[in-house]
From TrEMBL, chain A:
Homodimer. The dihydroxyacetone kinase complex is composed of a homodimer of DhaM, a homodimer of DhaK and the subunit DhaL. One of its GO terms (cellular component) is cytosol. InterPro entries: DhaK_1, DhaK_dom, Dihydroxyacetone_Kinase. It comes from the Bacteria. This is phosphoenolpyruvate--glycerone phosphotransferase. It catalyses: dihydroxyacetone + phosphoenolpyruvate = dihydroxyacetone phosphate + pyruvate. It comes from Dictyobacter vulcani. Signal peptide: none annotated. Keywords: Glycerol metabolism, Kinase, Transferase. Its EC number is 2.7.1.121.
UniProtKB/TrEMBL annotation, chain B:
One of its GO terms (biological process) is glycerol catabolic process. Coiled coil: none annotated. The keyword Transferase applies. It comes from Dictyobacter vulcani. The lineage of its organism: Bacteria, Bacillati, Chloroflexota, Ktedonobacteria, Ktedonobacterales. Gene3D superfamilies: 1.25.40.340. GO terms for molecular function: glycerone kinase activity. Residues 6-206 form the DhaL domain. One of its GO terms (cellular component) is cytosol. Pfam families: Dak2. InterPro entries: DhaK_L_YcgS, DhaL_dom, DhaL_dom_sf, Dihydroxyacetone_Kinase. It comes from the Bacteria. The keyword Transferase applies. Keywords: Kinase, Transferase. This is Dihydroxyacetone kinase subunit L.
Length: 333, 210
């Protein structure tokens, strides 16, 4: 294992300490409880947004804490859900009286831990709503799986819903918009290499020089199938077509397109993928009216990418364009 | 001979040691069909448990097990934290105030734990999860209780059935948890959660036998 770390057991704590000093103007970090909180929290009469999940997906979620996005993030150990204590502490830290929305990626552990936190918060009389993201078309949404995973749409949802929450909208409206964003977005990812969990010390799976894994998630877990490596043009087709089909996109639709790096792929290659994506969508008369290219929801040092398409309407576009100021996303302010 | 609160303490210590020794093995199993963290998560959780219960020599079994449950929920994370945490919390509720457990009480304790896991995980037998070790163990315990065998043998039979159940997960298709994303590719791998469940049950049988 070759990593820029001190000790595997200290990775999350030391990275959080680094974030705290690098972004002291935007966030407060409680190293003991392992939570990241917006600097000016709690904000009175604003619905507070909390998300969390395993570490290793940076900048998700801690990098999205700040104006116009999350109020708090709860990072767990690498690829491991945080615990209910963290979520409850975060809830106390950001609750300004207008209620709290938990944004949960659909993984068994995340869902169960947030569920326990919500039960605890409810016993204290704190109003909590939860929304689960499940946009990964690589997973069949059936009784025979844990359901689709929450991936790229989570980033877009945190931004858009954060924009609405900033206007002082009530919890029910904020939660409704969150469900709407989740229902209008889909993603699919692929890997060129595996990744190494620091505590494990070796790659989670092996991929040959001429192989790629299609339909991966964001935890170094293997995907749906392994195939021979091919060109960026073909890979983009493989990822995009199921997304278009699942969303039922048709000529004239407008989308926000995100080409996301898994952590180990250069921007140079991500832009090649975006170019192919643009070509595919243009061929179907679907227009990309907003875009995001870069490493936004990663899987440690995995090489590869994911494509997310979100069907836009005026409301979604308005809150996507709204000002945001966080460590990892900033515009308009 | 009933199981005493001292036995339970020793069981928890032995479980901690066994999970620590099997950290790399559990993580290796989890690498194949999950996300390579089960060994380190269980090791971290039980290390915290040992610290928490170190001064609890006189505590009743229910208090001990509830402490284990809350500690695991607070330290393990992932799916294992809520699942094992809920199992120990329910086991603690079923044994509240008790200083020792007869065969029937042991079976009742595991029945409560299994019901807790089913409820938290919305899972049942045959889905390639920890329940595939726990449910056969519970059934063996019930049968042993009907036959009025000594507690040591009851626990050995439970551990034996947990082990068979664990091995049987190799041929199962995962329909819960992260392994379910693999579909057919989950077949051929032993479930890490069923494996840690067997290790913990075997530790109990070994503790009471020695």
């Amino acid at each position: 294992m070759k990593k820029l770390i001190n000790k595997p057991g200290d990775v999350v704590r030391e990275a959080l300490a680094g974030m705290a000093s690098a972004h002291a103007d935007l966030i407060k970090v409680d190293l003991e409880q392992q939570i990241i909180v917006r600097k000016d929290a709690p904000l009175q009469n604003k619905v507070a947004l909390i998300s969390g999940g395993g570490s290793g997906h940076e900048p998700l979620h801690g990098g999205y804490v700040g104006y116009g996005m999350l109020d708090a993030a709860c990072p767990g150990a690498v690829f491991t859900s945080p615990v209910p204590d963290q979520m409850l502490t975060a809830t106390h830290a950001v609750n300004g009286g207008a209620g709290v929305l938990y944004i949960i990626k659909n993984y068994t552990g995340d869902v169960m831990n947030f569920e326990m936190a919500a039960e605890l918060a409810a016993t204290e009389g704190i109003e909590v709503a939860s929304v689960i993201t499940n946009d990964d078309v690589a997973v069949q949404d059936s009784l025979y799986t844990a359901g689709r995973r929450g991936v790229g749409v989570t980033v877009l949802l945190e931004k858009i819903v954060g924009g609405l929450a900033e206007t002082g909208a009530p919890l029910s409206q904020v939660a409704d918009l969150a469900r709407k964003v989740n229902s209008q977005g889909r993603s699919m990812g692929m890997a060129l290499t595996s990744c190494t969990v620091p505590a494990a010390g070796k790659p989670t799976f092996e991929l040959g020089e001429d192989e790629m894994e299609i339909g991966i998630g964001i935890h170094g877990e293997p995907g749906r199938r392994r195939t021979r490596l091919t060109t960026a043009a073909e890979i983009t087709e493989i990822l995009t077509n199921p997304v278009i089909e699942d969303l039922g996109l048709k000529a004239g639709d407008e989308v926000l397109a995100m080409v996301n790096g898994m952590g180990g792929t250069p921007l140079l290659e991500l832009y090649i993928v975006f170019n192919e994506l643009q070509r595919i969508l243009q061929g179907k008369a679907i227009s990309i009216t907003r875009s995001l290219v870069g490493n936004y929801i990663t899987s440690l040092e995995m090489a590869g990418c994911s494509i997310t398409l979100l069907r836009l309407d005026k409301q979604l576009q308005k809150y996507w364009d709204a000002p945001v100021h966080t460590p990892a996303l900033r515009w308009g302010r | 001979m009933p199981v005493t609160n001292k036995d339970i303490l020793h069981w928890l210590q032995r479980s901690t040691q066994v999970l620590h020794e099997n950290n790399a093995f559990l993580t290796q199993l989890d690498s194949a069909i999950g996300d390579a963290d089960h060994g380190s998560n269980m090791d971290r959780g039980f290390s915290a448990v040992i610290t928490k219960i170190s001064g609890m020599q006189e505590a009743d079994i229910g208090t001990l097990l509830k402490t284990v449950g809350t500690t695991l929920v607070s330290t393990v994370g992932g799916a294992s934290g809520p699942l094992y945490g809920t199992a120990f919390l329910r086991a603690g509720m079923a044994t509240a105030g008790k200083q020792h457990l007869e065969g029937a009480e042991i079976v009742a304790m595991f029945e409560a734990a299994v019901e807790g896991i089913k409820a938290r995980g919305k899972a049942q037998a045959g889905e390639k999860t920890m329940l595939d070790a726990f449910i056969p163990a519970l059934e063996a315990g019930k049968q042993a209780q009907l036959e009025q065998v000594p507690v040591t043998e009851l626990l050995q039979r439970m551990a034996g059935s947990a082990e068979s159940g664990m091995k049987a997960t190799i041929d199962l298709l995962a329909t819960k948890g992260r392994a379910s994303y693999l579909g057919e590719r989950s077949i051929g791998h032993q479930d890490p959660g069923a494996t840690s469940s067997w290790l913990i049950l075997q530790a109990l049988a070994d503790t009471v036998a020695s």
